[in-house]
Every structure is written in structure tokens, then in C-alpha cells.
Amino acid sequence: MTLAPDITEILARARSDLRMGVPVMLAAPQGVALVMAAETLDPQRLADLRALGGAPVLAITARRAETLKARPYDGDLARIVVPPDATLPWVLGVADPADDLKTPMKGPLISERDGAADLHRLAITLVKSARLLPAALVLPLSGGPGFAMRNGLTMVDTPRAAEYLMQASPLHPVVSARLPLEVAEAGRLHIFRPEDGGEEHYAIEIGQPDRDAPVLARLHSACFTGDLMGSLKCDCGPQLRGALAQMGAEGAGVLLYLNQEGRGIGLANKMRAYSLQDQGFDTVEANHRLGFEDDERDFRIGAQILAQMGFSAVRLLTNNPAKITMMRHNGIEVAERVPLKLGGNAHNHAYLATKAAKSGHLL
Ligand SMILES: Nc1nc2c(ncn2[C@@H]2O[C@H](COP(=O)(O)OP(=O)(O)OP(=O)(O)O)[C@@H](O)[C@H]2O)c(=O)[nH]1
Ligand SMILES: [Zn+2]
Could you state one GO biological process linked to this protein (predicted)? Predict the structure, then answer.
């Protein structure tokens, strides 16, 4: 019998430590390292880290490295050498593109070339999943588990964690209840909770859809600004209400409300992207400058929820071919694509055009 947390629980702890600016330890066969998220670093922690000696690096994604003209010797990431006199603003300047245009010369930035990057890769995956800027300070340490124990730090076994993070977290239905809606009185809201401590996702079931026929379905990603505030920068609000209205009119359907704000980068990072868009970058370029891919969503979640609700085939309300491909790869048959073209306006015209030109959205 053990009361010790398992790998899922340790990772959930590590995420919340990083969000609060607490270091975590990553262990791999080749060594142990202390990791901190660049975004939540403060001057005292940076000084404490320095006092430990050694040579810290700032792990950033290849996307961010490209903007900074740094060499990503590790393929998908770069390990930027932190100079001995580096200050907190230096670290934040590398991590955060907000002032890139004001201070274009951050370098020269030197990337480390020798040694393995497994710990750094996991560090970036963890800060991303904590919805922080994808940049992590990594300091190799000679003291292993003893150091973590003395300092009360969370210790993560890197190879096991990396393998675990490749899989989609299992989701469990928590509760469902009747929810009469404007579009249909016969509404029901289901809550699904992931095992990894991440955000819950919701399904709105309208009517009593036949499980043996393709169901009218929408996989909607959370958009606080568009869904709730009536933002004109995107088409999310009208798409959400339009999808529900169509399901109401047909008398049956299922809308998944997936908590993957900002195409999976979180609301704070989405607002960073909006700020870059005001500097002239489009929605895809803004994600890349921040160090993210165009789309960081995991659509296995949607497929899993549909399967758990007993659906195996959908008529999918979308303009995004990637959603169709992801459903098919994850065991959900897409019998038909139902276009959902609503909410175009003067403010989101360029955004919708970029999605069509760069992300393959169907017009
Ligand atoms: N990173 C980022 N996310 C954005 C931006 N504008 C909107 N979003 C997010 O994009 C997502 C849009 O979701 P969806 O409408 O489900 O997806 P879609 O890929 O456009 O596909 P369909 O609407 O099904 O055609 C939401 O999570 C929004 O928060 C942006 O400029 N940058
Ligand atoms: Zn939106």
C-alpha cells in the first residue's frame, strides 16, 4: 500500500508549482535538473538559482527561436545559454515577444549543442500545459532526490512523464442534468472530468439523438471573448449560437464545449497574441512568435466524449478540415460536413481570411 502520488498526480502538482513560480525537479537517466517557468520567475528565485552555481539554459521552442534568430539544434527546441549577468528582464525578453519590435536585438543568443534535450523538452511541455509562455529555465544539478526532498520540491521522472503526456488523459462523466434552452426545451448538460487534473469539458445534448445514426454535432472550443463578451475579432459567438439553433430546429444534436481557450494556449496567451495582432501580425504569426504552433488543441478529447456518450458517427458542423481528420483518426465517422458560416464582420475579415489561407479552413 502506498499513499504516494502517481505520475498523473505528480504532473498535476508540477503544473501548479510552475504556475505559482515554484521550481520543480526533473529526473532522467542522464541527470537531474531544476526547472522554472520563465513567465513566473521573480528576481529572488533567479538569484537563488544563480547561487546554486552551474550553467542554466532557457529552453524555448523552435518557433520562438526562429523569431529570435537563435539556432534550434534540438529540432523542436533550442537551449539558450543564460549569460552570467542575465537579469529577469533578459529572461522575459527572450520568453515574451511583447517588446520584440521595440528591442529587436536581444542577442546574440547562443544555443547549446551538446548533451541531451529530454529534460528541456519535458519542461516546455509542462509549462505549455500550465498555459504559460512556452519557455523554461533549466539548471542541471548534481544533488538529486535529496535536494528535492530538502527543499520540498516536486520531483518528476522524465521518461515516464514524457510517455504519459503523449497519451490523451482519460475522461470520466461526473454528472448530467436537464437544462432547458432557448433553442430547445429538451436540453441536457453533461460534465466530463479529465484524470490529469486539467479543465473539465462539457457536452450539451439536445433532444434524444439516435445513437445508431450520425448525430448533428459541433466541437466548439472555448472563446471567452467571442462566446461571452460579443467580441468582433472572431466568429465564435455567432457559431456557438448558430450551431445550437440548428440543433434546436432539427430537434436533436450534441454540442461539445471544450475548454481549449485560444486554440489550446489559454486566455492569457491568446491576449498576448491579440496584442501582437495589433502590432501587425496575423493570427498564425502571432502564435508562432509566442512560441506556439498554429493550433495546440487536442481533439482526441472530443472524440473520447462522443464515444462515451454512445456516438460513433457525426454530421459535423465545421469549416475546419483538421477537425474532420482528427475525428476520423480517433474512431468517429464523419458522415457529412455541415458548413457553419456565420459572424463575418469588418473586424474579423482578415482573421477569417488567414484561417482559410494558412490553416486550410473552407470558405
Ligand atoms: N491563439 C488564438 N486563438 C484564437 C484566436 N481567435 C480565436 N481563437 C480561438 O480559436 C478557437 C476557435 O475555435 P473553433 O471555432 O472551435 O475552431 P475552428 O478551428 O475555427 O473551426 P470551425 O469553427 O469548426 O470551423 C477558440 O478556442 C478561440 O478562443 C487568435 O487570434 N489566436
Ligand atoms: Zn473566438
Answer: riboflavin biosynthetic process
